[in-house]
Amino acid sequence: MLACVIVWSSKDPDKYRKLVWVTVFLTFDVIMFGAFTRLTDSGLGCPDWPGCYGHANPLQAMEHIRAAEALMPDGPVTVMKAWVEMIHRYLAMGIGVLIIAIMVIAWRFWLQSGRSNQRFSPRYPMLLFVFVCIQGAFGAWTVTMKLQPIIVTIHLLLGMALLGMLTWVGARQKDHAPVAAQASALRVPALIGLMLLTLQIALGGWVSTNYAALACSDFPLCHGAVIPQMDFDNGFTLWRTLGKTADGEYLPFAALTAIHWTHRFFAFVLAAYLAWLGCKALKIEGMRPVARALLGALALQITIGIATVSLKWPLALAVAHNGCAALLVLLLVMLNYKTRISGQPEKIVSQIK
Fold it and tell me: Where found in the cell (predicted)?
């Protein structure tokens, strides 16, 4: 794979570390492209899996795609949507290959070290491998179950979790400046922050997968009210088909309003908590760079969120909103990692010879 060739031909002496961080970067990109796939309604651009009408790429399936597009010009299958969906699959498979490479290399260096170098402990790469397989299964179910909202939302959450796990593995490969011992007091608050962010991402995924983004078109009110008319029962029934209630009726607009309003309300809660957490971390030696980045990303995410609603959900801003959420995941994982190494001397990382 091209990424592996680039890493191994680079002049960086620690190629294992570089491979891990390249995989982090590409996983972030795949999450962004996955958001683009979802927001352009391209999830069923190729309605089978893993191929496209049984072929490896849309070029070979062009006859089938053209026929489907002729029947429904504005439907889920078009040439553009087929390419978007398949490119997303190719990128996701590439991440799987990179994780396999990380796992194999970790095993090799761990055994060469006599199983003493915990930096190369294979338990994390093996967990990544299991996790990416589960993620692949949910990617397949996303297509075969016709974009069922709960499946698509779990697929998003697993992608974010994979990014967080890769970031943790990457953090283990870096040299870290000493972190003051008082950072240990933030271990629980930092973990709570990550859990709250996960819940908010789940709510955001639920908005996106139910096409509830424009259910509240004004801000900060919703339909001119602080608490508009809402249908939480149907809105948060998890196991149902897209656009339908559990009884098979069309999902009422009040249910979409409930989905959007809940995501918006919880955004205020999360923003207040992360702002407090970032300010606390700013006061601790060794935590300040991550804390500044966290507060900056939070401010950017709030701005993008408001602009997205005010400008009627433009595609570029909607994709950026997903990307900024992924950036917050990465930064909160780094913050959690730093609280775990607080009070320890500077971490010495041996280089791969």
Answer: Membrane
